Structure formats: C-alpha cells, structure tokens
C-alpha cells in the first residue's frame, strides 16, 4: 500500500468535517499529544547527550530570526546552523540568498519537522537538514555559523570554533552570547538579542589592537 503524499494528506484533512464527536476526541487527546511530543520529539535527542550539554527545544521567535538575519546582512556563501531545531534559521537564510544552507540537529523528529517546514514553504530539496552530532561537524569550510544554544554548550563550542573556523567566518549567537568573545555587533534587546562575532578578532592576542569592523557588518546609517 502506497503512502499518501503530503499534498494528498492535507487535501483529505481539509475535506473532512470533524463534527461534535471529532472535536471531543481532539480535546480529550490533547494531554496525550503533549506527552507524545515530549517523549517522541524531545527525548530521543536528549538520550544521546550528556546532561550538561542538553539544550531543550525552544524555537526561535520571529524577532530573533529577524535579528540574526540583520547581523548576516551583506554576507554571502554557505551557512550552517548548529542545533537547528525545526530549521527556521536555515530556511530563512536560504531565502536571503545564502547557499548551501545546512542545519545539524541530533533529534530525528526535529529533522523531519524541519523538512516539512521546507516543503510547506516550497524550498524542499533546496536546504539541507542532517541528523548529526554538532561536535562531529567539520567547520573548516564554514563561512557563516548560527547557534541558539545554552551557555554551558557555548563555552565548549567556542574551543571547537576557534580551532576549526577560518578567519573570515562570522558566528551569530542568539538568546545567549559567547561570554569570552567580543562581539562586533549586537542586534535586538532582551531574549531576542543576537550577537555577531568575527573569528579573526577572537584570535587576536590579548592587548592587540582591535581590527576594524568589516563594511558588510556595520549598521546602516
């Protein structure tokens, strides 16, 4: 028996009339659905990660995505999102002309969700989501990197980035900053804030003169 395509499934759903009993069933199943979301979507990825490196899935808000894109304005080339969740940063970067755009996410259900979002937006196959451990990703050819991760993870990820990323790479962190790095630009306020870091500046010895901010990263007058 052939599986329905996403288009056929959605069309069939739209044609159905739930009725009163259908609404009751949906309401009664809400609690089970919440538990299933936790057990099926969030837990699989957590089981493979040490406790101190676990990052709960919390999708980026529209403001956060907008701030990340503002910090990437003027940039081009490839982009990777480490811990890409439901894939919205990767998808938005593709829409802004970055390519290839790749999201790395350990949780298989979030990878499926990201692919569904890409399909719904008409960009399926144009962006890539990979179920891989971000610690095993080779960053040596990456030009633009985005992260929405917990402080405990960022402090360790910083070492990997300093060792692997090229000098002309730009790192954008959302929600939490790299506390030992100096940002070249900050966008937004509160929980929506994002920070941009040039790798060349982070590798300067202590006391060295700060390099000028690249033209493409300067805020518009």
TrEMBL record:
Annotated GO biological process: methylation; regulation of mitochondrial ATP synthesis coupled proton transport
Give the stretches traversing the membrane: 20-43
Q: Which SUPFAM superfamilies match?
A: S-adenosyl-L-methionine-dependent methyltransferases
Keyword S-adenosyl-L-methionine assigned to the entry: answer is: yes
**GO CC terms, sorted:** mitochondrion
Molecular function (GO) terms for this protein are: protein-lysine N-methyltransferase activity
Q: Which UniProt keywords apply?
A: Membrane, Methyltransferase, S-adenosyl-L-methionine, Transferase, Transmembrane, Transmembrane helix
**Coiled-coil annotated residue ranges, if any:** none
Q: Which Gene3D superfamilies match?
A: Vaccinia Virus protein VP39
Protein family (similarity comment): Belongs to the ANT/ATPSC lysine N-methyltransferase family.
What is the protein name for this chain? Adenine nucleotide translocase lysine methyltransferase
């Amino acid at each position: 028996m052939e599986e329905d395509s996403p288009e056929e499934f959605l069309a069939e759903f739209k044609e159905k009339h739930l009725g009163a009993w259908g609404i009751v069933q949906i309401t009664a199943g809400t609690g089970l659905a919440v538990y299933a979301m936790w057990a099926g979507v969030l837990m699989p990825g957590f089981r493979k990660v040490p406790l101190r490196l676990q990052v709960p899935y919390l999708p980026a808000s529209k403001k956060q995505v907008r701030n990340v894109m503002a910090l990437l304005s003027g940039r081009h080339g490839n982009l990777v999102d480490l811990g890409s969740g439901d894939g919205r940063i990767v998808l938005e970067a593709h829409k802004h002309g970055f390519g290839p755009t790749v999201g790395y996410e350990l949780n298989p259900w979030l990878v499926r969700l990201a692919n569904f979002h890409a399909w719904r937006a008409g960009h399926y196959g144009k962006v890539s989501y990979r179920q891989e451990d971000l610690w095993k990703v080779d960053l040596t050819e990456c030009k633009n990197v985005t992260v929405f991760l917990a402080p405990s993870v960022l402090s360790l990820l910083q070492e990997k980035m300093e060792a692997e990323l090229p000098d002309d790479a730009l790192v954008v962190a959302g929600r939490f900053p790299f506390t030992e790095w100096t940002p070249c630009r900050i966008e937004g306020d509160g929980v929506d804030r994002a920070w941009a870091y040039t790798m060349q500046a982070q590798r300067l010895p202590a006391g060295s003169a700060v390099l000028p901010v690249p033209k493409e990263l300067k805020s518009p007058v």
